[in-house]
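Input structure tokens:
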């Protein structure tokens, strides 16, 4: 009989196995989490743009703070998580709009083509791709062609980041000079 919270098919305190490649990928992702990049704008500028674009009145204080924090962060990666229905898509739309109002470019990557289409229709993104498309995966093989174009200072938004594999995340974080914002 399994203890509460432990799957019946798993031995409590049993051995766990991984590969050297998985450990390398995890190490790369941990290092990427600490990379510093130039901030896209100051927090004050982000709040000013939220007011100018009309988002300040539509977001609650926590959402405004999160959007301004992502826009002004000097970190390569900014992560935002929350339960369903807490307004993450709304925040993402506000984030995209203030980055664009500041002269920046935002590209969305989602786990599926359906999710990418939702980012276009509900999030206002003109550029949204599924993860495999963006990484340039060649169907039916492990090979890839070059990533879709993205430049220094551009923002790559990874929707449902927790759905991406370590290998895909490592491929995405391998593009230096961009800002990566992940939502779960």
């Amino acid at each position: 009989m399994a203890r509460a919270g432990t799957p019946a098919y798993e031995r409590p305190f049993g051995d766990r196995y991984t590969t050297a490649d998985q450990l390398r990928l995890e190490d790369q992702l941990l290092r990427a989490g600490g990379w510093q990049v130039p901030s896209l704008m100051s927090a004050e500028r982000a709040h000013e743009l939220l007011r100018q674009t009309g988002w300040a009145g539509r977001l609650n204080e926590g959402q405004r703070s999160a959007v301004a924090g992502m826009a002004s962060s000097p970190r390569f990666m900014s992560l935002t998580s929350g339960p369903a229905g807490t307004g993450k898509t709304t925040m993402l739309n506000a984030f995209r709009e203030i980055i664009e109002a500041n002269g920046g470019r935002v590209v969305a990557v989602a786990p599926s083509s359906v999710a990418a289409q939702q980012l276009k229709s509900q999030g206002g993104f003109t550029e949204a791709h599924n993860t495999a498309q963006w990484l340039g995966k060649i169907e039916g093989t492990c090979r890839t062609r070059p990533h879709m174009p993205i430049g220094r200072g551009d923002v790559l938004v990874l929707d449902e980041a927790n759905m991406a594999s370590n290998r895909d995340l490592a491929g995405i974080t391998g593009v230096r000079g961009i800002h990566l914002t992940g939502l779960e």
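The chain has one domain: 20-183. The longest strand covers residues 106-110.
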